[in-house]
Known about the structure:
- The chain is an alpha/beta fold and 175 residues long.
- 33% of the residues lie in helices and 23% in strands.
- It has helices at 11-18, 32-37, 81-85, 104-113, 132-139, 155-174; strands at residues 2-5, 27-29, 48-50, 54-61, 64-70, 91-95, 117-122, 147-150.
- The strands form two sheets. Strands 4-5-1-6-7-8 form a six-stranded mixed beta sheet, sandwiched between helices.
- The radius of gyration is 15 Å and the shape is globular.
- The two termini are 20 Å apart.
- InterPro entries: Gliding_Motility_GTPase, Gpn, P-loop_NTPase.
- Pfam families: ATP_bind_1 (PF03029).
- This is ATP/GTP-binding protein.
- It comes from Streptomyces justiciae.
Amino acid sequence: MVIAGGFGVGKTTAVGSISEIEPLTTEAAITEVAAGVDDLSLTPQKTTTTVAMDFGCITIDPTLKLYLFGTPGQERFGFMWDDIVEGAVGGLVIVDTRRLDDCYAAVDYFEHKRIPFAVAANAFDGKVEHTLDEVRWALDVADHVPVVVFDARETGSVRDALLVVLELALARTES
């Protein structure tokens, strides 16, 4: 399962919230150069960023593990996405409703690759800035793409969002 989205939307947090192993992260300090490129205005406490991927896993049952791969959020690291999504059952595109334009690339990527995905609006400070219908309209996602609210810090919330994607993937294999 691929966890994708723009810069600072909560991908690393989501993987860390649900992984049963200590997640492997490739966090690097945000340099002054990167700070000039990446918009930190809504994430002023952010001091690191993913430069390759995050990795975690969850056991579904004794015979089945779900591996989680978090993508880097900046376009300059986009060249890695093709390798990260190879063999993926689906994707969860996390969006920050205060910065929807940062997530267009991730939505377009999954649509183009025809990988089943859901959009998860991360509830920063316990709220989202737009209704789910407004998020769907702004991102121009098809009606069959689920759009949900979740909190990347809460295990149960991340689990529920991932289950939505797993249901999509399962439905795809049954058709």
